[in-house]
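Reviewer 2 asked us to include a model.

Predict the structure of this chain.
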Amino acid sequence: MSIVLDQLTKRYGGHPVVNNVSLEVADGEFFVLLGSSGSGKTTVLSTIAGLTEADHGRVLLHGRDVTNLPPQQRRIGFVFQNYALFQYMTVADNIEFGLSIRRVSKAERRRRRDELLELVGLAGLGSRMPRQLSGGQQQRVALARALAHQPEALLLDEPLGALDAKIRVELRRTLRAIQRELGITTILVTHDQEEAFELADRLGVMNFGRLLEVGPPEELYLRPQTEFVATFLGTANLLVGRRARNGVQVGPAQFPLPGAYATRHQDERVQVLFRPEDVVLSDSSVGLDSPLLGRGRVEQMSFSGSFERLRLRLPPIPGVRPIAPPVTFGEDAILVEATRPQDQVDRLPVQPGQDIWVGVRRIHALAHPGMRFLIATDGSPSAQAALDLGGQLARLAHARTVLLGYGLKGEALQRHLQAAKEQLGSGLAALEARATLDPLGEAVKREVERIPCDLIVLGAGGRERQTLAEQVLQTGEHNLLLVSQTRPALSRALVCVTSGEQGKDDVLFAGRLMRHLGAEATLMSVLPEGSPQEPEPERTERFLAGGVRSLDVLGVPSHTVIRYGAIAAAIGQELDEGGYDLLVVGAPLPDLDGQITLGGVVGQLLTRVTEIPILIVRSVYV
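Predicted model (structure tokens):
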């Protein structure tokens, strides 16, 4: 292998921007790292080049461990997005620069320079200054300079990002042709999917510092394994259906699946992907030559050159939940993206507002692991209660579970972990037990950096409850379930929300849990005392009504309550009167230093509410 990354990790301010990335790039391969801004892809590239020092892991180039070598000893060519040319040097001098500092003879420098100018299509322009060249030409000079010293690998950091569309297309072809001619191992970083698909032998998709999937472009596009990759690569129609005897049931449509999928449990939830080009339209249900999804209405149309793009709105389909395209909070419709070539448009023209029958040619079932839980236990009575409730939730939600033992030492810790595994029993999708001697906050941080989780279940009572909750919420993007006492099965939840984007997250995550419990929910908002001025009560009522509809899609029965007064007191009164066995609240926003402090309403509730579990939902805005 030309390039090997072994558990590469880089942190800034304690936060992993590259998180345990391992990758092998073959000799002569053109590999593309694709991801949105901030995903960590450029940091991976600069770490390979030696411009950034890794905190953990190794970088190997052609079998040499170069982790601790300076950039000039790694034999790497690097091309930046902003060209980074010396403006006071001619094109020829720019290309020769790396050779001159390596003390290559003048004759050899000129020979190599002329070869590269011809290779990148700039023969005869060596005497020009960079300012006399177009952006595309300057990037060709940057490429020639990176290749001048005959590097063993070439790294390209969004080299075409600053160019206009037509020049990008031309340079992509030039870049691919040069790479093939030289046979040089290349890694390109980009957020442009079209660029990635055209150039890559293989591509890797990154998100939040993690390398999620690696494979040929067509494989990741047609058969992704994760929800993020499915929705990030191209446009996706992603629904949750049910596994049937011989395939997948999506409303009225049944699709066959390969044998590996068909052997799994029937009636299990499964995420189903179909691309816009897989959608079939017809003016009659009998005219479809593919499984029928339903009858929809044309909501939007746009012209895209050789294709027509459509957005279709279908009524709710029993047993089917939409993921992408996302529907508006409170809606129960299903949106479908479709594309049609012009010959199909000519045969069946449609207009916005027109009803049309919708079918799907093919689908792909994602390897959907369900949710992932982390249950922390130190052997205390509250931890035993957390084990009981966390295990119950994990079995019902088919969640993969990590059991984290802390607060004990030596044999006592191992004995407790073994007893905890026995207490959890069977029926879990997957169970991994891990022991730590570190404080809980540090141990949780390390675990969620290793593998993110949706929910941490923690037994915590007494004075340390608030402190532990703050430590755990500070470590990642997970939600937190605090348990202090053993309780029977949960059946009624009080979900306290404020109207807004954070409140939507509270409703939706609570619904994901409660649908497995068969529980019902009360959505409550608290408004100031007195005579509130319109439109605040009306806006809150509309928000809560939208929450009821969203929970209905998840199969969770619910109703709404609006109370007036001090928030913590109003919640306490509702809990006293309602007979609830779960309280759901949103995590507060972090302060200017990025710290989450539970000193306000949530802190008051943690002190007052000790008999029932409290679910603290961390919004994407936190």
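DSSP finds 18 helices and 31 strands in the chain. The longest strand covers residues 292-304. We have added this to the supplementary material.
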